[in-house]
Amino acid sequence: MMFLLLALFVAGAYGCGLPTYPPIVTRVVGGEDVREHSWPWQVSLQYQSGSSFYHTCGGTLISNQWVLTAAHCISNRSYRVYLGKHNLKDNNEAGSIAISPSKIIVHENWDSYRIRNDIALIKLSTPVKYSDAIMAACLPNSGDILPNGAPCYVTGWGRLWTGGPIADILQQALLPVVGHSTCTKPDWWGTLVTDSMVCAGGDGQLASCNGDSGGPLNCQNPDGSWDVHGVVSFGSSMGCLHPLDQQCDDQKLRCAMDCITFGSGT
């Protein structure tokens, strides 16, 4: 997994993490519709049921042929990866494309009981051509640790409220990083948090919900580019509209942010 993540990124005509249409980000807490194609590395992982496909998780394009998602999103199903999507209900969106996987690699130490190593890689059957709508995210340098309060954003089409429908339009939400010393307190995640994890959210903030699993935690660099510091894994068991104590497992590379999904993520 480590050498794959470090070696697979291939920059094309478009630089990583620099959307043609930069996201309009605010300090507003809670989900909001995104600017179209402002998070061009966001993908929709969809499973097949009968002759139709349905959104189940998010994911992040990290090269022209590899997608990062959460291990708990993967089961014994047939999948496709939809790239360049904005509105899930629009089957004729310009610039979007659905590609089937040629290989899915779930982390060999994925532990569903303790929720450890919740990360998977999907190899697309054909490389994608970068465009305004489809672009790879940047990955942070190994060992980078975000400061407490760093203003990061989660994106996805997750449920709009506990038990509610998934969003049609891609959503974004501010989710500040929470320092390790706070996240390991007994009233947060305590001993469940390891040194290889990063937390985000808390303080009663509305964030993401089922269906956001596997999606990115986007954090901006001083030069304006965006790094993806992890993938959505899990959060508070109290529901999508309750205080968020989110735990993010970064897979020792700080590129797998276990966060934000409540329950199974399906």
TrEMBL record:
A biological process term (GO) from this entry: proteolysis
GO molecular function: serine-type endopeptidase activity
Record keywords, A-Z: Disulfide bond, Hydrolase, Protease, Secreted, Serine protease, Signal, Zymogen
Domain called Peptidase S1: residue spans: 28-240
Signal sequence, renumbered to the chain: 1-15
Record localization: Secreted
InterPro entries linked to this entry: Peptidase_S1_Elastase_sf, Peptidase_S1_PA, Peptidase_S1_PA_chymotrypsin, Peptidase_S1A, Trypsin_dom, TRYPSIN_HIS, TRYPSIN_SER
Its EC number(s): 3.4.21.71
Recorded catalytic activity of this chain's protein: Preferential cleavage: Leu-|-Xaa, Met-|-Xaa and Phe-|-Xaa. Hydrolyzes elastin
GO CC, alphabetical: extracellular space
Protein name: pancreatic elastase II
Lineage: Eukaryota, Metazoa, Chordata, Craniata, Vertebrata
